[in-house]
Design a protein that fits this description.
By secondary structure, the chain is an alpha+beta fold. It has helices at residues 2-10, 33-41, 50-65, 93-101, 123-126, 197-220, and strands at 14-22, 25-26, 72-79, 107-112, 130-133, 136-139, 147-148, 151-152, 157-163, 173-177, 182-186. Helix 1 (2-10) packs across helix 6 (197-220) and helix 4 (93-101) packs antiparallel against helix 6 (197-220). It starts with a helix and ends in a 9-residue tail after the last helix.
């Protein structure tokens, strides 16, 4: 993932993920993507607002003391992608990203752009109007996350995932003994993280980089990401 990300950066394509929400605490939204993605490169705990980061950490520690766990939402942005990457059927840009993302343990949902909010919009609100910015076509909004009909349009690709609470908790839980066919109680021992959201952030960026690289080489050829091209 790191090697692929380096190759993408040489093409002006940048990827970053922040913890949009964790333990009920929200981070600020992406604002200046170029600056925000650079900021995330230097963060161990991938939150844009330092105050939100401290609140998340405090809440996670409190939940851990209660022998429980928490989940959250990760938001990823990909900038610098050229238009025309992906296809309208099985290998749509969303399909390839989603295929990889659901290989990350604990991911239970994904949405692109306005996502589920599109259900409450009219077509006139959901559509992204286009204009010329110099010689480049850009959209006035980005409800469709830089993707139309499965193909990139040159705007930033933004998606969010839901990371479920860590299932391994220290509270007693009802389970079954499938050998003896009886109900029993599960009580864990050892070390288990109360939250894996912050660990999943870099994984999500890496998976997105791999999917993007695959689609770019399908579109432009296998030498596309070479440093000398």
């Amino acid at each position: 993932g790191a090697i692929v990300s380096y190759a993408l950066k040489n093409k002006g394509i940048f990827i970053g993920t922040h913890i949009k929400k964790c333990a009920g605490i929200s981070d600020r939204n992406f604002e200046n993507l170029a600056e925000d993605l650079q900021t995330l490169d230097d963060k161990i705990f991938a939150v844009l607002d330092d105050n939100s980061a401290e609140k998340m950490k405090e809440k996670i520690e409190k939940i851990a003391e209660q022998k429980d766990s928490v989940g959250g939402i990760l938001e990823t942005a990909i900038t610098g992608l050229p238009a025309g990457v992906g296809e309208p059927w099985f290998d749509s840009f969303e399909s390839m990203i989603s295929h990889g993302i659901f290989s990350i343990p604990a991911v239970k949902g994904i949405e692109f752009g306005a996502g589920f909010s599109l259900a409450d919009m009219l077509g006139s609100e959901a559509n992204d109007a286009l204009k010329y910015d110099g010689q480049k076509i850009v959209s006035l909004t980005n409800n469709n996350a830089g993707i139309n009909g499965g193909i990139t349009n040159g705007m930033p690709v933004i998606f969010r995932t839901v990371i479920k609470p860590t299932p391994s908790i220290f509270k007693e839980q009802q389970t079954v003994d499938f050998i003896n066919k009886t109900d029993t109680v599960l009580e864990l021992k050892g070390r288990h993280d109360p939250c894996i959201v912050h660990r999943a952030a870099v994984v999500q960026s890496s998976v997105a980089a791999l999917a993007a690289a695959d689609l770019l080489t399908q579109r432009f050829g296998t030498d596309y990401l070479r440093e000398d091209r």
